[in-house]
């Protein structure tokens, strides 16, 4: 398996080194009302010498093949532990912060929500989730499931992104 570790990466981040970089592509989703949508996404994982990766994700609605309005933005920190466990702290433009915990398995990462804090103005009552990230044929693929106060855990967004 071809796993590259970027130069200057803190050794504590070696297990996440394959994520570092910018990824772009399209995906599909089901909104919290059950409607389907297609989106464009840009994700960047980077490092600054600390024992964490910092992360930014932006999604845009695709309408008739054209990039439309912003759907959302996330930013956060991915903090691996020496036992291959992982803590991820994310803040979302829709008005919540989520802490996820999980396991790193070479080029597969499984995460589950540990806690969600919502702002009073959050339109969606996001309450828990799970995420799966993986490197497949040199692309980043992921699936994100969410539950709210209105519905049980179900698929929300999934995409295949290419390193740019």
TrEMBL record:
Gene3D superfamilies: 2.40.128.20. Heme b binds at residue 156. Its cofactor is heme b. Keywords: Heme, Iron, Isomerase, Metal-binding. Its EC number is 5.99.-.-. It holds the Pfam family THAP4_heme-bd. InterPro entries: Calycin, Nb(III)_bact/plant, Nitrobindin, THAP4-like_heme-bd. The keyword Metal-binding applies. It is an enzyme of class 5 (isomerase). A motif (GXWXGXG) lies at residues 21-27. Binds 1 heme b group per subunit, that coordinates a highly solvent-exposed Fe(III) atom. It comes from the Bacteria. GO terms for molecular function: heme binding; metal ion binding; peroxynitrite isomerase activity. Residues 13-163 form the THAP4-like heme-binding domain. Pathway: Nitrogen metabolism. It catalyses: peroxynitrite = nitrate. Belongs to the nitrobindin family. Heme-binding protein able to scavenge peroxynitrite and to protect free L-tyrosine against peroxynitrite-mediated nitration, by acting as a peroxynitrite isomerase that converts peroxynitrite to nitrate. Therefore, this protein likely plays a role in peroxynitrite sensing and in the detoxification of reactive nitrogen and oxygen species (RNS and ROS, respectively). Is able to bind nitric oxide (NO) in vitro, but may act as a sensor of peroxynitrite levels in vivo. Forms a 10-stranded antiparallel beta-barrel structure able to accommodate a hydrophobic ligand in its interior. In fact, this fold hosts the heme group, which is located in a wide surface cleft. PANTHER family: PEROXYNITRITE ISOMERASE THAP4, THAP4 PROTEIN. This is Peroxynitrite isomerase.
């Amino acid at each position: 398996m071809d796993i590259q570790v970027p130069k200057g990466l803190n050794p504590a981040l070696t297990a996440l080194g394959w994520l570092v970089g910018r990824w772009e592509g399209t995906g599909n989703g089901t909104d919290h009302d059950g409607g389907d949508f297609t989106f464009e996404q840009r994700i960047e994982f980077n490092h600054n010498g600390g024992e964490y990766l910092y992360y930014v994700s932006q999604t845009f609605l695709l309408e008739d093949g054209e990039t439309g309005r912003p759907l959302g933005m996330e930013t956060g920190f991915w903090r691996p532990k020496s036992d291959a466990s992982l803590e991820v702290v994310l803040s979302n433009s829709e008005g919540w912060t989520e802490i996820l915990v999980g396991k790193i398995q070479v080029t597969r990462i499984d995460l589950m929500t540990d806690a969600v804090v919502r702002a009073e103005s959050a339109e969606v009552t996001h309450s828990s989730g799970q995420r799966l990230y993986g490197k497949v044929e040199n692309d980043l693929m992921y699936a994100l499931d969410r539950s709210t106060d209105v519905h049980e855990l179900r698929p929300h967004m999934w995409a295949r992104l290419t390193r740019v």
